[in-house]
Amino acid sequence: MSRAVRSRGSRKVPLLALAHARSGDKGDTANIGLIAKRPEYYPLLVREVTAARVARHFRGLIRGPVERFELPNLHALNFLLHGALGGGGTVSLKTDAQGKVLSTALLRMEISVPRGIDVR
Amino acid sequence: MKDKVLIACGQGFWGDWLEAPVRQVEGGPIDYLVMDYLAEVTMSILQKQRSRDPNLGYARDFVPLMERLLPSIAGRGIRVVTNAGGVNPRSCAEGVLAAARKLGISIKVGVVTGDDLLDRLDDLLAAGHEMRNLDTGEPLSSIRPLVTSANAYLGAAPVVEALRRGADVVVTGRVTDTGLTLAPMIYEFDWRADDWDRLAAGTVAGHIIECGAQCSGGNCLLDWERIPGLEDPGYPIIEAFPDGSFVVTKHPGTGGKVSVATVTEQLVYEMGDPRSYITPDCVADFTTIRLKQEGRDRVRISGVRGRAATDTLKVSISYFYGYKAVGTLVYAWPEAYAKARRADRILRARLERLGLKFEEILTEYVGVNATHGRLAGKPSPDLAEVQWRIAVRAKEREPVERFTREIAPLVLNGPPSVTGFAGGRPKVEEIVAYWPALISKGEVIPQVEVLEA
């Protein structure tokens, strides 16, 4: 029931409209820093963009687990994606061996945004 | 004591914009120019160069750069701190001194060594230091014969000592990127070795500027199309204050932008647990950082808290891993993607028929899914072209070498509408891999000497 209520009072919005991001590498682990474009979006990111959601988003593209850390002072979340870079560094055969554009891959995710919150 | 120190970043990595350090010196007042030249694998390349010629093994670009800068920095008392010394800081320093003599300028060059553990590895292993891989947990003994370089990350302390002994230019081996920026603050403001909050603040300043223009508008996603003047980007400058607060800014009249957004993107770059940003100098807590836009291209940072440093140092070890190669061809409309996929199936069948064994074969289609995989969705059936990119890796050279000869024939004996082979046969690359480990601080004794011209 709660799901139906929530869907009436909210809509799906891509993270690209709500946040910006930068990503990089540490060995075979990629990190993605996700930064709210406006402070009022930050609680939404905390609620919707869980480690489990991010792991599901990247399913099949990464081999390890996802960890999440909160930086309320920067209105940002930091995600560690383990086993994301095909061995990492010089061993990796990937174009994006250093995970530089996993940032925008995360911004493809859509989350529920309540009608009351304005998205520019 | 100065009430403010200006620390300018002139180089975010070896290969960064050659004009940047010159513009930092000529574009306005600065007290220090800091330059980072070392990435994980750089040390291994430099070890190889030194093994061929004992006078090499450092970032050679640094010496001609100093020759260009010395006349202006000597007159203005600007001091330079850099890890361009690589695995041979002494030779790098000699190069700088030779340049100074040629120009008739008298300077003191500080040399920081003691980070290089390559010749001590067997003794350290014998003494029970396992140097297990921080990612995989394996002991270093499993790859010991393949090791090509091993360097402990030193902190700010030896750089501070060189500055205290009057060095105008400090050339180091593997000092952390953050330590290069923190050291002038410790020296100028006389911060105590256990003043964790201030050390953490200086470390955060170092993290912000260690990638050069990446905090001042470069590679910034937010409103990227409205970031002005990237033809002439202003590289970052830290205005540091004795209480540990600081402002990130850039010279007036330069392009790029310093905003809360550009600085925040850099703060989260290559971050692990934000509460524990571990360096040899302290543990900084990135969840305590306060940012405030206090003017155009000025962001003030305050509130940074830190904790005591750990009793270990990170060791950056590199080792020979194997070989890899990447082949590419471009397929054009119509049905570009289908043609590229057919080429991939054909090549894989040929490699198998040849009995070649690889650790991994990876195919990507640039323009379709190379960077975002399945998240990119279904490609348009009307794509103008697709670049087929196939890469292989093996422990032995032979299968990789043979692979590089199998790409070109497809131009004539594979699917049609193919081009983009002007670059010739792919090159076989040696893979030098990275092995991060820890060592107790007591095993690493930094050394400082000051040479004069």
Observed structural traits:
heterodimer; A: 120 residues; two-stranded antiparallel ribbon; B: 453 residues; alpha+beta; Alpha-Beta Plaits; six-stranded antiparallel β-sheet; 12 helices; 28% helix
Describe the structure.
The complex is a heterodimer of chains A (120) and B (453). Chain A has helices spanning 2-8, 42-48, 51-57, 102-106; strands at 10-14, 19-26, 29-36, 66-71, 76-81, 110-114. Chain A has 120 residues and is α+β, with helices and mostly antiparallel strands. Chain A has one domain (2-114). In chain A, strand 4 and strand 5 (76-81) form a beta hairpin. The longest helix of chain A has 7 residues, at 2-8. Chain A is elongated, with a radius of gyration of 15 Å. Residues 1-5 of chain A have low confidence and may be disordered. In chain B, helix 1 packs parallel to helix 3 (62-76), helix 6 (157-164) packs across helix 7 and helix 7 (177-189) packs across helix 8 (196-209). Chain B is globular. The interface between A and B is large, with 41 and 48 residues.
